[in-house]
Design goal:
Strands 4, 5, 9 and 10 form a four-stranded antiparallel β-sheet that branches. It is built from eleven helices and 16 strands. By secondary structure, the protein is α+β, with helices and mostly antiparallel strands. Strand 14 and strand 15 form a beta hairpin. The longest helix is centred in the first third of the chain and has 30 residues. Helix 1 runs antiparallel to helix 2.
Length: 473
C-alpha cells in the first residue's frame, strides 16, 4: 500500500462503504402523530476503524519488543524499524484525515477515529521520539521522559461541575532505570492563562508505581467568560539514566478545549458555538461539509445529553440536509462551509438546541421523538393533510432563531402556530400548553404523568386560524 516491497505490518486497502454517505432516513409515517415515538436507528454501518485499531495495537507490541532490544543493546535494524513505524503511523493519520474530510461517518465510528488519532499523536509518536533519543544520545542533557494526557470529554461545562476524567501517563526511554516524581499540577493555557491554578479544585495528584495518574474530580471554580480554556499538566521528575541523575519539569500536551459557564441561560449558546467552531475548524477558514457533519453530530449528541453507545434520537443525514437547506440553497450536496456561513448556521440552530437542552420536558420530548423538529412547513402540511382534526407536530421555525412551530390540523386544513415567548414559563411547560390548546386522546395517553394536572375530559374542538397564527382559537 505504501510503496514498499517489505511490509512487516501488512494492511489491507481501506474499504469505505458508500452506504455511509446515505444515512438511514427516518420514515415520515413515524412522526404523523405526537403519540408515535420515532423508531430506533438502523444498525450502524461498520467501517474499517477496527483495522486501524488493530494496527496500532500491533505497533504498540513492536515498541515494547524494541524497548527490550535497546535495553539489551541489540540495536541491529532498530533504527530502520523506528523509521518504518513512523512512516506507517504517518500514513494511518493521513488515511484517518481523509475519512473525516470525505465521508459522512456514524457517531461511533467518528469517536473511534478520534481515539485512534489521539493514541497515535499523544502516545505512539512520543514513544518513538524517546527511542530515537536512546539511539542518538551518548550523554543525556535532559531527562528522556514525556508526559501524555487523555480525557473523556470536553466542551461547555457549568462552574463547579466536573471537567471529566483525565488519564496521565509517564513515558520513558528504554535507558531510564529509576524515576521519582513530585505532585502533578494542572494549569490553564490560552486566553484564560491569566487565571490562577486556584480556580481548579481537587488539582493535586501523584503518579503510581506504574507511572499512571488520574484526575477524576477536577473542577473550574470560576467561569472563563466566552474564552476557550485548555489545560496542561506539569510535574517535576528526577530520573536515573546510565548512572546519571537528571531533573526536569515535564509539561503535557494540551487538553481538549473547555468553556466554563456561570449562567446556562445566557451563556450556553455562545459557549457551545465557540466550542464547535474550535473543534471543527481548528485554524481553518473553510472545511468540507463531510467534516462539518462529523463534528456537528458529535456536538449535537453532547447538546442533547446522549451517549454514543446509547443513541435514542440520532441525527440522520436527512436531518442534516434539512438544517443546511434551511439556511443555504444546498443541503448535503454542498461541498464546503466557511466561518461566515457557520456563524449564520449556528445563530439559527444554537438557540433551538439550548431550548431543547434546558427547557422543562423539552429534552425528553425531543429524545423520545415527540418533537419532529427537522421538517419544513410544506412537509408538515403533507404529513398532516390526511390526519384527524387535532393532530399536530412540533418543528423548528426556519425563520425565527430558536423558534418552534406547532403545525396542526383543524376543520379548515393545516395551520402553523409560532410558539410565543409567554406561552411557556417556569409555571407552565410546553406540555401544559399543549394540554390546554389541543385535544387529542393519543397525546394525553403518551404524555400521561408529564402534566402538572391531569387533563380534563372534553370534546374535540375545531382549531381555526391563519398560517403563523398569533393566537390559538
Amino acid at each position: 500500500l505504501y510503496g514498499t516491497d517489505i511490509d512487516p505490518l501488512p494492511r489491507k486497502n481501506p474499504r469505505i462503504s458508500a452506504d455511509v454517505q446515505i444515512s438511514a432516513n427516518l420514515p415520515l409515517e413515524s412522526i404523523q402523530n405526537v403519540a408515535t415515538p420515532r423508531p430506533p436507528p438502523n444498525p450502524k454501518t461498520n467501517l474499517t476503524n477496527h483495522q486501524f485499531r488493530s494496527e496500532c495495537k500491533e505497533i504498540d507490541h513492536r515498541l515494547k519488543d524494541m524497548r527490550n532490544k535497546i535495553i539489551q543493546n541489540e540495536l541491529q535494524n532498530v533504527h530502520w524499524e523506528l523509521g518504518f513505524i513512523r512512516k506507517h503511523l504517518d500514513n494511518i493519520i493521513t488515511d484517518l484525515s481523509i475519512l473525516e474530510e470525505t465521508h459522512f461517518l456514524e457517531p461511533g465510528e467518528f469517536k473511534e477515529l478520534q481515539m485512534i488519532q489521539e493514541t497515535i499523536q499523544n502516545y505512539l509518536y512520543l514513544q518513538l521520539d524517546l527511542y530515537d533519543m536512546d539511539l542518538k544520545a551518548t550523554n543525556y542533557r535532559e531527562a528522556p521522559v514525556f508526559l501524555c494526557v487523555t480525557q473523556e470529554k470536553a466542551g461547555p461545562i457549568e462552574k463547579d461541575k466536573l471537567c471529566g476524567s483525565f488519564q496521565l501517563k509517564l513515558l520513558t526511554s528504554a535507558r531510564v532505570h529509576n524515576i521519582v516524581t513530585d505532585h502533578i499540577r494542572p494549569e490553564l493555557v490560552g486566553k484564560s492563562a491569566k487565571r490562577t491554578e486556584q480556580e481548579l479544585e481537587y488539582s493535586k495528584q501523584v503518579f503510581n508505581e506504574a507511572g499512571l495518574a488520574q484526575f477524576a474530580d477536577l473542577k473550574f471554580s470560576k467561569g472563563t467568560s466566552a474564552n476557550i480554556a485548555k489545560m496542561k499538566f506539569s510535574v517535576v521528575v528526577e530520573v536515573l539514566v546510565d548512572g546519571n541523575n537528571l531533573k526536569k519539569t515535564l509539561k503535557s500536551n494540551e487538553t481538549k478545549p473547555f468553556i466554563s459557564i456561570t449562567n446556562t441561560g445566557s451563556q450556553w449558546t455562545g459557549a457551545a458555538g465557540t466550542w464547535l467552531k474550535e473543534d471543527a475548524f481548528k485554524e481553518k477558514s473553510e472545511i468540507s461539509i463531510c467534516r462539518f457533519w462529523n463534528y456537528f453530530q458529535k456536538h449535537y449528541l453532547a447538546a442533547t445529553k446522549q451517549d454514543v453507545a446509547n443513541i435514542k434520537r440520532p441525527l440522520y443525514l436527512s436531518d442534516f440536509d434539512y438544517l443546511l437547506k434551511a439556511k443555504f440553497e444546498q443541503g448535503v450536496d454542498k461541498k464546503n462551509i466557511n466561518l461566515d456561513e457557520y456563524k449564520k448556521f449556528w445563530d439559527w440552530i444554537g438557540p433551538g438546541l439550548k431550548k431543547i437542552r434546558y427547557q422543562l420536558h423539552c429534552l425528553w420530548l425531543f429524545v423520545e421523538g415527540y418533537f419532529c423538529a427537522f421538517v419544513t412547513g410544506t412537509e408538515a402540511e403533507n404529513i398532516l393533510s390526511s390526519q384527524a382534526v387535532g393532530t399536530f407536530i412540533i418543528r423548528l421555525s426556519e425563520r425565527i432563531k430558536g423558534g418552534f412551530v406547532i403545525s396542526y390540523k383543524n376543520s379548515s386544513g393545516v395551520r402553523h402556530y409560532l410558539i410565543q415567548f409567554d406561552d411557556t414559563d417556569k409555571k407552565k411547560t410546553l406540555i401544559d400548553f399543549w394540554e390546554k390548546n389541543f385535544t387529542n386522546h393519543n397525546k394525553d395517553t403518551a404524555l400521561e404523568g408529564k402534566y402538572k394536572k391531569p387533563p380534563k375530559p372534553r370534546k374535540n374542538q375545531s382549531l381555526r386560524g391563519t398560517p403563523y397564527d398569533t393566537i390559538l382559537l
